[in-house]
Write a structure and sequence with these properties.
elongated; mainly alpha
């Protein structure tokens, strides 16, 4: 993001790699297999979050030490998703940035003027380019991945990272977002996850230490 702030034309250069010229536009967005992959990236975070709820309820019926989904962890997942991809990216940034999408600007066959990510004076009025909601959702997958037991955590984190990069590449290939839109979405989501995790999961750690030591007479 710092580079695109200093050199906004970098966003145009990256977007231009996916543009096939007048008449074709961003042709990759018409490929069925890529559309299916985009749909997977869009819905997967919501599916993971929804499936976490019955997993948590099942764990409540048979509680045991070291359970994957505790009260604090389910709160961490729900709040980090609601605040990061939900509120900050989709609810705030996309509505106040006014940045046209690549497919909407003059350089790529549209009618709007290109605007850098930090300028809030573009022609877009609603659901704008900055930042990417789908990249934010994909980045959030790092949250449940980070909670898995050690043998699976590294694999899950790698898969979530690959999914995030794939979703970002697809959004750029489809002319839906600039590179800085994807970077901003990932950054906002990661910071939100860290903040919510620090606020909630440390409480779980405090409770675990108390339970381990037990009440003293």
């Amino acid at each position: 993001m710092a580079l695109t702030a200093l050199f906004p034309q970098l966003d145009l250069a990256v977007a231009g790699l996916f543009y096939d010229g007048a008449g074709k536009g961003f042709a990759m967005r018409s490929q069925a297999n890529l559309i299916l992959l985009r749909e997977l990236g869009y819905y997967l975070p919501m599916i993971v979050l929804v499936l976490a709820i019955p997993g948590f309820l099942f764990g409540m019926r048979k509680p045991h030490r070291g359970a994957f989904l505790t009260v604090w962890r389910i709160l961490f997942l729900a709040l980090s998703f609601a605040l990061g991809p939900g509120l900050l990216v989709n609810g705030v940034l996309k509505e106040v940035s006014h940045r046209p999408r690549p497919s909407q600007i003059i350089e790529f066959g549209g009618a709007s003027e290109f605007r850098p990510w930090y300028a809030a004076d573009g022609a877009c009025e609603h659901n704008c380019s900055f930042a990417s909601g789908e990249v934010a959702g994909a980045t959030w997958l790092l949250a449940p991945a980070s909670l898995l037991p050690a043998p699976w955590r590294a694999v899950a984190l790698t898969c979530a990272s690959v999914m995030t990069v794939a979703v970002a590449a697809l959004r750029m290939a489809f002319g839906g977002h600039f590179a800085s839109d994807a970077a901003a979405a990932a950054l906002v989501t990661l910071v939100t996850m860290l903040a919510v995790g620090w606020a909630l999961l440390r409480r779980e750690g405090d409770e675990a230490r108390f339970d381990a030591s037990g009440p003293r007479s």
